[in-house]
């Protein structure tokens, strides 16, 4: 199994994705939100790239079951029902509803990876479940870090490294340079929060904008045994 890790969705070409299973991760916070929403009973999450597109989808729905969620620059979007904090996606709010989501990085990354054979959604919340699904499928894998403001995000890289490390323990794998580096780093890291506090732009930004509780939540590993996947515009379990 060949495993390629890319530092951001902007650096991935269609040729890199084609005929490979793709995993998109935006640990702080989009993919953590998507997983939480689905676990808490949302019918689906619909990722879109722009705020205008999100409103268009919302207005076309005549059932009254659609919610708008997301952020720009980590802050809530005016008029939306939900922000981009996993804590906001409670069962009471999302069960039986569909969530249209647009964010600065994560939803852009998902929409940028549509040439993949199958597109999975990962964060620390479901590392083991995603790893097991990839091992079972036995296809070559592309792990895409969403990044932060166009830059590599260390937390996404660590998540990718954990997945690659898990796969390497159960199958014969080859890695690109970033994949090898992130695998080694994830294997030797004992205090993830301290590491990210020193080296993560998203960590610093969330802390500065008052979302420190989200940091602690999003660093929890294997909370859920689920593997969300994207198909025909929707993310479901």
Task: Please provide a written account of the structure.
There is one protein chain. A 7-stranded mixed β-sheet has the order 8-1-7-2-6-9-10. Strands 3-5-4 form a 3-stranded parallel β-sheet, with helices on both faces. With 237 residues, it is of the alpha/beta class. The protein is built from 11 helices and 10 strands. It has helices at 14-17, 30-39, 51-60, 91-94, 106-111, 127-137, 154-168, 177-188, 192-199, 201-208, 212-218, and strands at 2-6, 21-25, 44-47, 66-70, 98-102, 118-122, 141-145, 174-175, 229-231, 234-236. The mean pLDDT is 97. The chain has a single domain, classed as Alpha-Beta Complex (putative 2-phosphosulfolactate phosphatase). The radius of gyration is 16 Å and the shape is globular. Helix content is 40%, strand content 18%.
Report the principal-axis shape: globular
What's the N-to-C terminus distance?
A: 24 Å
Radius of gyration: 16 Å
Number of domains: 1
Structural class: alpha/beta
Beta-strand proportion? 15-25%
CATH architecture: Alpha-Beta Complex
The quaternary organization reads as: single chain
Q: Which sequence of strands runs across the widest sheet?
A: 8-1-7-2-6-9-10
The tally of beta strands, per DSSP, is: 10
CATH class: Alpha Beta
Mean pLDDT: 97
Number of helices: 11
Percent helix = 40-55%
Uncertain runs with pLDDT below 50, 5 residues or more?
Answer: none
Name the CATH homologous superfamily. ComB-like
**CATH topology label:** putative 2-phosphosulfolactate phosphatase
Query: How would a crystallographer describe the biggest sheet?
Result: 7 strands, mixed
Helix/strand order, N-terminal first: EHEHEHEHEHEHEHEHHHHEE
């Amino acid at each position: 199994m060949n495993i390629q890790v890319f530092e951001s969705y902007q650096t991935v070409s269609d040729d890199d994705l084609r005929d490979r299973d793709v995993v998109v991760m935006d640990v702080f916070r989009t993919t953590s939100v998507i997983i939480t929403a689905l676990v808490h009973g949302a019918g689906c999450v619909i990722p879109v790239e722009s705020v205008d597109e999100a409103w268009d989808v919302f207005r076309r729905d005549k059932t009254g079951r659609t919610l708008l969620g997301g952020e720009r620059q980590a802050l809530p979007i005016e008029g939306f029902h939900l922000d981009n904090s996993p804590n906001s996606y409670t069962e009471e709010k999302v069960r039986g509803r569909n969530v249209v989501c647009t964010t600065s990085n994560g939803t852009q990354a998902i929409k940028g990876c549509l040439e993949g054979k199958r597109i999975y959604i990962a964060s620390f919340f479901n590392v083991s479940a995603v790893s097991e699904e990839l091992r079972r499928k036995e296809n070559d894998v592309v792990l895409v870090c969403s990044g932060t403001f166009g830059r590599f995000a260390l937390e996404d890289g660590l998540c990718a490294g954990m997945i690659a490390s898990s796969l390497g323990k159960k199958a014969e794998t080859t890695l690109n340079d970033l994949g090898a580096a992130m695998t080694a780093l994830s294997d030797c890291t004992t205090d993830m929060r301290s590491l990210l506090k020193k080296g993560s732009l998203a960590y610093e930004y969330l802390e500065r904008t008052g979302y420190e509780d989200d940091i602690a939540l999003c660093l929890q590993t294997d909370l859920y045994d689920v593997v969300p996947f994207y198909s025909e515009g929707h993310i479901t379990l």
